[in-house]
Amino acid sequence: MRRAVVVGAGPNGLAGAVRLAQAGLEVTVLEAADEIGGGTRSAELLEPGIVHDICSAFHPLGAASPYLRTLGLEQYGLRFLRPEIDAAHPLDDGTAGLFYQSVEKTAAGLGADGRRWRAIFGPVAKRFSTIADDALGPMLRIPRHPLDFAGFAVRSGLPATLLARAFSTPQARALFIGIAAHPFVRLNRIGTAAGGVMLTAAGHVEGWPVAEGGSAAITRALAAKLADLGGRIETGTTVTSRADLDADIVLLDTDPTAAQRILGTEQPSRTARSYRGHRGGPGAFKVDYVVEGEVGWTAPGCDRAGVIHLGGTMEQVVRAENTVLDGRMPDDPFVLIGQQWLADPSRAKGDRKPLWAYAHVPRGYTGDATEAVTAQIERFAPGFSSRIRASRSIGPAELEVENPNYVGGDIGGGRNDLWHLVARPRLSPNPYATGVDGVYLCSSSTPPGGGVHGMCGYRAAEAALRG
Protein backbone atom coordinates (compact mmCIF):
# COMPACT_ATOMS: atom_id res chain seq x y z
CA MET A 1 0.00 0.00 0.00
CA ARG A 2 1.27 3.50 -0.85
CA ARG A 3 1.98 5.68 2.16
CA ALA A 4 1.18 9.34 2.70
CA VAL A 5 2.20 11.75 5.43
CA VAL A 6 0.43 15.03 6.09
CA VAL A 7 2.22 17.66 8.16
CA GLY A 8 -0.30 19.72 10.10
CA ALA A 9 -3.75 18.82 11.41
CA GLY A 10 -5.60 22.00 10.56
CA PRO A 11 -8.76 21.73 8.44
CA ASN A 12 -6.78 21.74 5.18
CA GLY A 13 -4.33 19.10 6.36
CA LEU A 14 -7.18 16.91 7.59
CA ALA A 15 -9.23 17.39 4.41
CA GLY A 16 -6.21 16.44 2.31
CA ALA A 17 -5.58 13.41 4.53
CA VAL A 18 -9.19 12.27 4.15
CA ARG A 19 -9.00 12.57 0.36
CA LEU A 20 -5.78 10.52 0.23
CA ALA A 21 -7.30 7.88 2.53
CA GLN A 22 -10.35 7.71 0.28
CA ALA A 23 -7.98 6.87 -2.57
CA GLY A 24 -6.65 3.91 -0.62
CA LEU A 25 -3.40 5.29 0.77
CA GLU A 26 -2.11 4.58 4.26
CA VAL A 27 -2.23 8.05 5.80
CA THR A 28 -0.50 9.48 8.87
CA VAL A 29 -1.01 13.08 10.00
CA LEU A 30 1.77 14.66 12.07
CA GLU A 31 0.79 17.62 14.26
CA ALA A 32 3.33 19.58 16.29
CA ALA A 33 0.80 20.82 18.84
CA ASP A 34 -0.83 18.62 21.45
CA GLU A 35 -4.25 19.31 19.97
CA ILE A 36 -5.49 19.12 16.38
CA GLY A 37 -7.28 21.92 14.58
CA GLY A 38 -4.87 24.82 14.18
CA GLY A 39 -7.07 27.93 14.17
CA THR A 40 -10.22 25.81 14.11
CA ARG A 41 -10.32 25.05 17.81
CA SER A 42 -12.48 25.98 20.78
CA ALA A 43 -11.86 26.21 24.52
CA GLU A 44 -13.23 27.48 27.82
CA LEU A 45 -10.69 30.29 27.81
CA LEU A 46 -11.98 32.45 30.65
CA GLU A 47 -14.67 30.68 32.64
CA PRO A 48 -15.87 27.08 32.92
CA GLY A 49 -18.84 26.37 30.70
CA ILE A 50 -18.31 29.39 28.44
CA VAL A 51 -16.90 28.32 25.07
CA HIS A 52 -14.78 30.62 22.92
CA ASP A 53 -13.56 29.90 19.39
CA ILE A 54 -9.77 30.24 19.25
CA CYS A 55 -9.71 31.81 15.77
CA SER A 56 -12.16 30.76 13.06
CA ALA A 57 -15.75 31.14 14.16
CA PHE A 58 -18.29 31.48 11.32
CA HIS A 59 -18.34 29.09 8.42
CA PRO A 60 -20.25 30.09 5.27
CA LEU A 61 -17.59 28.47 3.09
CA GLY A 62 -17.40 25.43 5.36
CA ALA A 63 -21.11 24.76 5.01
CA ALA A 64 -20.90 25.44 1.26
CA SER A 65 -17.59 23.64 0.59
CA PRO A 66 -17.83 21.46 -2.53
CA TYR A 67 -15.64 18.85 -0.82
CA LEU A 68 -16.69 18.93 2.83
CA ARG A 69 -20.33 18.62 1.79
CA THR A 70 -19.57 15.19 0.28
CA LEU A 71 -18.13 13.71 3.48
CA GLY A 72 -21.24 13.26 5.59
CA LEU A 73 -19.58 14.95 8.56
CA GLU A 74 -22.91 15.19 10.35
CA GLN A 75 -22.44 11.47 11.07
CA TYR A 76 -19.49 12.49 13.23
CA GLY A 77 -21.33 15.10 15.26
CA LEU A 78 -20.92 18.21 13.09
CA ARG A 79 -24.02 20.36 13.11
CA PHE A 80 -24.16 23.87 11.71
CA LEU A 81 -26.43 26.35 13.49
CA ARG A 82 -27.59 29.72 12.18
CA PRO A 83 -28.64 32.93 13.92
CA GLU A 84 -31.76 34.86 12.92
CA ILE A 85 -29.61 37.55 11.29
CA ASP A 86 -26.25 36.49 9.87
CA ALA A 87 -24.41 39.83 10.01
CA ALA A 88 -24.97 43.48 10.80
CA HIS A 89 -23.03 46.67 10.17
CA PRO A 90 -24.10 49.51 12.50
CA LEU A 91 -23.56 53.19 11.80
CA ASP A 92 -23.21 56.12 14.18
CA ASP A 93 -26.74 57.35 13.46
CA GLY A 94 -28.23 54.27 15.15
CA THR A 95 -29.10 52.42 11.93
CA ALA A 96 -27.54 49.26 10.53
CA GLY A 97 -27.32 47.27 7.34
CA LEU A 98 -28.59 43.75 8.06
CA PHE A 99 -27.53 40.61 6.20
CA TYR A 100 -29.83 37.59 6.12
CA GLN A 101 -29.43 34.18 4.53
CA SER A 102 -32.37 35.14 2.34
CA VAL A 103 -31.52 37.46 -0.55
CA GLU A 104 -35.09 38.72 -0.52
CA LYS A 105 -35.11 39.49 3.19
CA THR A 106 -31.80 41.32 2.95
CA ALA A 107 -33.03 43.32 -0.03
CA ALA A 108 -36.28 44.18 1.73
CA GLY A 109 -34.35 45.70 4.63
CA LEU A 110 -32.17 47.87 2.37
CA GLY A 111 -34.99 50.05 1.08
CA ALA A 112 -33.98 51.90 -2.05
CA ASP A 113 -30.98 49.62 -2.53
CA GLY A 114 -32.89 46.37 -2.25
CA ARG A 115 -33.43 45.95 -5.95
CA ARG A 116 -29.77 46.62 -6.70
CA TRP A 117 -28.60 44.17 -3.99
CA ARG A 118 -30.86 41.49 -5.45
CA ALA A 119 -29.59 42.14 -8.97
CA ILE A 120 -25.89 42.01 -8.01
CA PHE A 121 -25.86 39.06 -5.60
CA GLY A 122 -28.98 37.08 -6.48
CA PRO A 123 -27.61 35.52 -9.70
CA VAL A 124 -24.31 34.56 -8.04
CA ALA A 125 -26.12 32.96 -5.10
CA LYS A 126 -28.47 31.11 -7.45
CA ARG A 127 -25.53 29.51 -9.28
CA PHE A 128 -23.23 29.27 -6.29
CA SER A 129 -22.73 25.51 -6.38
CA THR A 130 -21.20 25.61 -9.86
CA ILE A 131 -19.37 28.89 -9.25
CA ALA A 132 -17.80 27.58 -6.04
CA ASP A 133 -16.37 24.58 -7.87
CA ASP A 134 -14.37 26.98 -10.06
CA ALA A 135 -13.77 29.88 -7.65
CA LEU A 136 -12.46 27.72 -4.81
CA GLY A 137 -9.42 26.60 -6.74
CA PRO A 138 -6.48 27.87 -8.83
CA MET A 139 -7.17 30.82 -11.10
CA LEU A 140 -4.78 29.69 -13.86
CA ARG A 141 -7.15 27.16 -15.43
CA ILE A 142 -10.17 27.00 -17.69
CA PRO A 143 -13.38 27.12 -15.64
CA ARG A 144 -15.56 24.01 -15.78
CA HIS A 145 -18.63 26.27 -15.84
CA PRO A 146 -17.44 29.29 -17.85
CA LEU A 147 -20.75 31.11 -18.26
CA ASP A 148 -21.64 30.96 -14.57
CA PHE A 149 -18.08 31.82 -13.57
CA ALA A 150 -18.04 34.83 -15.89
CA GLY A 151 -20.82 36.53 -13.95
CA PHE A 152 -18.90 36.01 -10.71
CA ALA A 153 -15.63 37.18 -12.27
CA VAL A 154 -17.12 40.42 -13.61
CA ARG A 155 -18.28 41.41 -10.15
CA SER A 156 -15.19 40.12 -8.38
CA GLY A 157 -12.72 41.91 -10.64
CA LEU A 158 -13.92 45.31 -9.47
CA PRO A 159 -12.51 47.30 -6.58
CA ALA A 160 -14.71 46.68 -3.56
CA THR A 161 -15.32 50.42 -3.22
CA LEU A 162 -16.58 50.65 -6.80
CA LEU A 163 -19.03 47.78 -6.32
CA ALA A 164 -20.16 49.31 -3.02
CA ARG A 165 -20.88 52.60 -4.79
CA ALA A 166 -23.49 50.79 -6.86
CA PHE A 167 -25.63 51.35 -3.76
CA SER A 168 -27.02 54.74 -2.82
CA THR A 169 -27.54 54.34 0.93
CA PRO A 170 -24.78 54.36 3.55
CA GLN A 171 -26.26 51.22 5.12
CA ALA A 172 -25.94 49.09 1.97
CA ARG A 173 -22.51 50.47 1.14
CA ALA A 174 -21.22 49.77 4.63
CA LEU A 175 -22.81 46.30 4.71
CA PHE A 176 -20.97 45.19 1.58
CA ILE A 177 -17.67 46.90 2.37
CA GLY A 178 -17.61 45.26 5.81
CA ILE A 179 -18.00 41.85 4.20
CA ALA A 180 -15.35 42.70 1.60
CA ALA A 181 -12.94 43.77 4.36
CA HIS A 182 -12.66 40.25 5.80
CA PRO A 183 -9.61 39.35 3.63
CA PHE A 184 -7.43 42.30 4.84
CA VAL A 185 -7.10 44.21 1.54
CA ARG A 186 -6.91 47.73 0.12
CA LEU A 187 -10.55 47.98 -0.77
CA ASN A 188 -10.03 50.49 -3.59
CA ARG A 189 -7.79 48.16 -5.63
CA ILE A 190 -8.81 46.00 -8.60
CA GLY A 191 -10.04 42.55 -7.62
CA THR A 192 -10.79 43.36 -3.98
CA ALA A 193 -14.52 42.79 -4.45
CA ALA A 194 -13.82 39.06 -4.86
CA GLY A 195 -13.83 38.14 -1.19
CA GLY A 196 -16.95 40.17 -0.52
CA VAL A 197 -18.85 38.69 -3.45
CA MET A 198 -17.87 35.14 -2.44
CA LEU A 199 -18.80 35.57 1.22
CA THR A 200 -22.04 37.36 0.36
CA ALA A 201 -23.11 34.70 -2.13
CA ALA A 202 -22.13 31.85 0.20
CA GLY A 203 -24.07 33.54 2.99
CA HIS A 204 -27.16 33.82 0.83
CA VAL A 205 -26.92 30.08 0.18
CA GLU A 206 -25.84 28.66 3.54
CA GLY A 207 -25.96 31.60 5.92
CA TRP A 208 -22.99 32.34 8.17
CA PRO A 209 -23.33 29.38 10.53
CA VAL A 210 -21.41 28.31 13.61
CA ALA A 211 -20.53 24.74 14.53
CA GLU A 212 -22.53 23.47 17.48
CA GLY A 213 -20.33 23.34 20.57
CA GLY A 214 -17.49 25.29 18.95
CA SER A 215 -15.47 25.36 15.73
CA ALA A 216 -13.43 22.42 17.00
CA ALA A 217 -16.41 20.25 16.04
CA ILE A 218 -15.33 20.62 12.39
CA THR A 219 -11.85 19.24 12.88
CA ARG A 220 -13.09 16.55 15.27
CA ALA A 221 -15.49 15.38 12.57
CA LEU A 222 -12.72 15.35 9.94
CA ALA A 223 -10.46 13.41 12.30
CA ALA A 224 -13.22 10.86 12.94
CA LYS A 225 -13.81 10.48 9.21
CA LEU A 226 -10.09 9.92 8.70
CA ALA A 227 -10.01 7.28 11.44
CA ASP A 228 -12.91 5.44 9.79
CA LEU A 229 -10.86 5.35 6.59
CA GLY A 230 -7.89 3.85 8.45
CA GLY A 231 -5.84 7.01 8.84
CA ARG A 232 -4.15 8.07 12.05
CA ILE A 233 -2.98 11.28 13.72
CA GLU A 234 0.13 11.78 15.87
CA THR A 235 0.16 14.96 17.96
CA GLY A 236 3.20 16.47 19.63
CA THR A 237 5.31 15.58 16.60
CA THR A 238 7.45 18.31 15.03
CA VAL A 239 8.81 17.90 11.50
CA THR A 240 12.04 19.76 10.78
CA SER A 241 13.34 18.19 7.59
CA ARG A 242 12.45 16.07 4.58
CA ALA A 243 14.31 13.19 6.26
CA ASP A 244 11.48 13.02 8.81
CA LEU A 245 8.99 12.16 6.06
CA ASP A 246 9.25 8.63 4.74
CA ALA A 247 6.27 8.42 2.37
CA ASP A 248 5.26 8.25 -1.28
CA ILE A 249 3.16 11.41 -0.95
CA VAL A 250 3.65 14.31 1.47
CA LEU A 251 1.24 17.18 2.07
CA LEU A 252 2.50 20.21 3.99
CA ASP A 253 -0.19 22.22 5.79
CA THR A 254 2.36 24.89 6.63
CA ASP A 255 3.36 28.43 5.75
CA PRO A 256 5.55 28.47 2.58
CA THR A 257 8.61 29.63 4.52
CA ALA A 258 8.24 26.66 6.90
CA ALA A 259 7.80 24.35 3.92
CA GLN A 260 11.02 25.67 2.41
CA ARG A 261 12.90 25.07 5.64
CA ILE A 262 11.64 21.47 5.71
CA LEU A 263 12.52 20.82 2.06
CA GLY A 264 15.87 22.61 2.17
CA THR A 265 18.18 22.05 -0.78
CA GLU A 266 15.88 19.45 -2.34
CA GLN A 267 13.63 22.25 -3.53
CA PRO A 268 14.56 23.90 -6.86
CA SER A 269 16.20 27.27 -6.31
CA ARG A 270 13.52 29.29 -8.14
CA THR A 271 10.68 27.73 -6.13
CA ALA A 272 12.68 28.06 -2.92
CA ARG A 273 13.12 31.79 -3.56
CA SER A 274 9.38 32.16 -4.10
CA TYR A 275 8.65 30.38 -0.83
CA ARG A 276 11.22 32.37 1.14
CA GLY A 277 9.84 35.58 -0.34
CA HIS A 278 6.23 34.73 0.48
CA ARG A 279 4.43 37.97 1.31
CA GLY A 280 2.20 37.75 4.36
CA GLY A 281 -0.84 39.86 5.02
CA PRO A 282 -1.61 42.18 7.95
CA GLY A 283 -2.14 40.83 11.43
CA ALA A 284 -5.03 40.26 13.78
CA PHE A 285 -5.43 41.31 17.39
CA LYS A 286 -7.97 39.15 19.19
CA VAL A 287 -9.93 39.93 22.34
CA ASP A 288 -12.22 37.42 24.04
CA TYR A 289 -14.74 38.75 26.53
CA VAL A 290 -17.19 37.29 28.99
CA VAL A 291 -20.18 39.63 29.02
CA GLU A 292 -23.02 39.61 31.51
CA GLY A 293 -26.44 40.45 30.10
CA GLU A 294 -26.88 42.18 26.77
CA VAL A 295 -24.02 43.77 24.85
CA GLY A 296 -26.15 46.89 24.50
CA TRP A 297 -26.17 47.57 20.76
CA THR A 298 -27.93 50.79 19.78
CA ALA A 299 -28.86 49.83 16.22
CA PRO A 300 -31.91 47.56 15.86
CA GLY A 301 -31.03 44.06 14.68
CA CYS A 302 -27.50 43.93 16.07
CA ASP A 303 -28.72 42.08 19.15
CA ARG A 304 -29.90 39.25 16.85
CA ALA A 305 -26.90 39.13 14.47
CA GLY A 306 -24.21 36.47 14.68
CA VAL A 307 -21.50 38.72 13.21
CA ILE A 308 -21.12 42.47 13.73
CA HIS A 309 -18.78 44.61 11.60
CA LEU A 310 -17.57 47.70 13.43
CA GLY A 311 -15.93 50.54 11.58
CA GLY A 312 -18.62 53.00 10.61
CA THR A 313 -19.21 54.17 7.06
CA MET A 314 -17.65 52.73 3.92
CA GLU A 315 -15.17 55.61 3.83
CA GLN A 316 -14.16 55.07 7.46
CA VAL A 317 -13.59 51.34 6.97
CA VAL A 318 -11.53 51.93 3.83
CA ARG A 319 -9.38 54.51 5.60
CA ALA A 320 -8.75 52.20 8.56
CA GLU A 321 -7.80 49.27 6.31
CA ASN A 322 -5.43 51.42 4.25
CA THR A 323 -3.78 52.66 7.43
CA VAL A 324 -3.16 49.07 8.55
CA LEU A 325 -1.72 48.13 5.17
CA ASP A 326 0.56 51.18 5.38
CA GLY A 327 1.98 49.61 8.55
CA ARG A 328 0.34 51.97 11.04
CA MET A 329 -2.24 51.26 13.73
CA PRO A 330 -5.48 53.22 13.17
CA ASP A 331 -7.26 54.86 16.09
CA ASP A 332 -10.54 53.28 14.96
CA PRO A 333 -9.63 49.85 13.52
CA PHE A 334 -12.05 47.62 11.65
CA VAL A 335 -13.33 45.14 14.24
CA LEU A 336 -15.25 41.91 13.75
CA ILE A 337 -17.51 40.71 16.54
CA GLY A 338 -18.91 37.20 17.02
CA GLN A 339 -22.07 36.49 19.02
CA GLN A 340 -22.02 32.73 18.55
CA TRP A 341 -24.35 32.06 21.47
CA LEU A 342 -27.29 33.46 19.49
CA ALA A 343 -27.20 30.42 17.22
CA ASP A 344 -25.66 28.06 19.76
CA PRO A 345 -26.83 28.76 23.32
CA SER A 346 -24.59 25.94 24.60
CA ARG A 347 -21.65 28.37 24.31
CA ALA A 348 -23.03 30.53 27.15
CA LYS A 349 -23.68 29.86 30.84
CA GLY A 350 -26.71 31.53 32.31
CA ASP A 351 -26.56 35.24 31.61
CA ARG A 352 -22.79 35.19 30.93
CA LYS A 353 -21.83 34.98 27.28
CA PRO A 354 -18.64 34.70 25.21
CA LEU A 355 -18.05 37.69 22.95
CA TRP A 356 -15.45 37.02 20.23
CA ALA A 357 -13.64 40.01 18.71
CA TYR A 358 -10.65 40.78 16.57
CA ALA A 359 -9.22 43.88 14.95
CA HIS A 360 -7.19 44.24 11.79
CA VAL A 361 -3.73 45.51 12.80
CA PRO A 362 -0.37 45.93 11.03
CA ARG A 363 1.68 42.82 10.42
CA GLY A 364 3.86 42.12 13.44
CA TYR A 365 2.11 44.79 15.53
CA THR A 366 3.55 44.76 19.06
CA GLY A 367 1.20 47.16 20.81
CA ASP A 368 -1.93 46.51 22.85
CA ALA A 369 -5.11 47.12 20.87
CA THR A 370 -7.47 46.03 23.65
CA GLU A 371 -8.66 49.56 24.41
CA ALA A 372 -9.17 50.32 20.71
CA VAL A 373 -11.28 47.18 20.27
CA THR A 374 -13.33 47.91 23.38
CA ALA A 375 -13.79 51.53 22.29
CA GLN A 376 -15.17 50.45 18.92
CA ILE A 377 -17.72 48.25 20.69
CA GLU A 378 -18.59 51.11 23.09
CA ARG A 379 -19.10 53.35 20.08
CA PHE A 380 -22.05 51.25 18.96
CA ALA A 381 -23.01 49.73 22.34
CA PRO A 382 -22.70 52.46 25.01
CA GLY A 383 -22.03 51.06 28.46
CA PHE A 384 -20.49 47.86 27.12
CA SER A 385 -17.43 48.14 29.38
CA SER A 386 -19.59 47.91 32.49
CA ARG A 387 -20.87 44.51 31.31
CA ILE A 388 -17.43 42.90 30.87
CA ARG A 389 -16.75 40.26 33.52
CA ALA A 390 -13.51 38.84 32.08
CA SER A 391 -11.30 39.31 29.03
CA ARG A 392 -8.24 37.94 27.30
CA SER A 393 -6.16 39.67 24.62
CA ILE A 394 -3.71 38.12 22.19
CA GLY A 395 -1.68 39.98 19.58
CA PRO A 396 0.18 38.94 16.42
CA ALA A 397 3.26 37.56 18.19
CA GLU A 398 1.20 35.41 20.52
CA LEU A 399 -0.99 34.22 17.66
CA GLU A 400 2.15 33.04 15.85
CA VAL A 401 3.33 31.19 18.96
CA GLU A 402 -0.04 29.43 19.21
CA ASN A 403 -0.06 28.62 15.50
CA PRO A 404 3.24 28.93 13.57
CA ASN A 405 1.30 29.30 10.31
CA TYR A 406 0.12 32.73 11.54
CA VAL A 407 3.41 34.47 10.76
CA GLY A 408 3.28 38.07 11.96
CA GLY A 409 -0.30 37.51 13.08
CA ASP A 410 -1.49 36.86 9.52
CA ILE A 411 -4.42 34.45 9.95
CA GLY A 412 -5.23 34.31 6.22
CA GLY A 413 -2.21 32.58 4.74
CA GLY A 414 -0.76 35.56 2.89
CA ARG A 415 -1.81 38.68 1.06
CA ASN A 416 -5.14 38.71 -0.73
CA ASP A 417 -4.44 41.30 -3.41
CA LEU A 418 -5.04 40.61 -7.11
CA TRP A 419 -1.56 39.19 -7.71
CA HIS A 420 -1.91 36.69 -4.89
CA LEU A 421 -5.35 35.63 -6.07
CA VAL A 422 -3.61 34.47 -9.25
CA ALA A 423 -0.16 33.53 -7.90
CA ARG A 424 -0.71 31.92 -4.52
CA PRO A 425 1.95 31.07 -3.33
CA ARG A 426 3.63 31.42 -6.76
CA LEU A 427 2.62 31.76 -10.39
CA SER A 428 2.06 28.18 -11.56
CA PRO A 429 -0.67 26.07 -13.18
CA ASN A 430 -0.09 23.68 -10.27
CA PRO A 431 0.40 25.96 -7.24
CA TYR A 432 0.36 22.99 -4.83
CA ALA A 433 3.54 21.44 -6.26
CA THR A 434 6.66 22.31 -4.28
CA GLY A 435 9.15 21.24 -6.96
CA VAL A 436 10.08 18.17 -4.90
CA ASP A 437 8.69 14.90 -6.22
CA GLY A 438 5.72 13.71 -4.20
CA VAL A 439 5.58 16.79 -1.94
CA TYR A 440 2.72 19.28 -2.10
CA LEU A 441 1.73 22.40 -0.17
CA CYS A 442 -1.86 22.33 1.11
CA SER A 443 -2.18 25.25 3.54
CA SER A 444 -4.27 28.40 3.15
CA SER A 445 -1.26 29.89 1.37
CA THR A 446 -2.48 27.93 -1.66
CA PRO A 447 -5.72 28.44 -3.63
CA PRO A 448 -8.38 29.28 -2.71
CA GLY A 449 -6.85 30.81 0.43
CA GLY A 450 -8.23 31.40 3.92
CA GLY A 451 -11.43 29.98 5.32
CA VAL A 452 -12.46 26.68 6.85
CA HIS A 453 -13.50 24.98 3.61
CA GLY A 454 -10.83 22.28 3.28
CA MET A 455 -10.46 23.05 -0.42
CA CYS A 456 -6.71 23.79 -0.22
CA GLY A 457 -6.15 20.33 1.25
CA TYR A 458 -8.52 18.66 -1.17
CA ARG A 459 -6.99 20.35 -4.24
CA ALA A 460 -3.46 19.51 -3.10
CA ALA A 461 -4.42 15.89 -2.54
CA GLU A 462 -5.97 15.71 -5.99
CA ALA A 463 -2.78 17.15 -7.48
CA ALA A 464 -0.75 14.55 -5.57
CA LEU A 465 -2.94 11.68 -6.78
CA ARG A 466 -2.54 12.85 -10.38
CA GLY A 467 1.21 12.77 -9.78
From TrEMBL:
Name this polypeptide is given: FAD-dependent oxidoreductase
InterPro entries named in the record: FAD/NAD-bd_sf
Coiled-coil ranges from the UniProt annotation: none
Domain of life: Bacteria
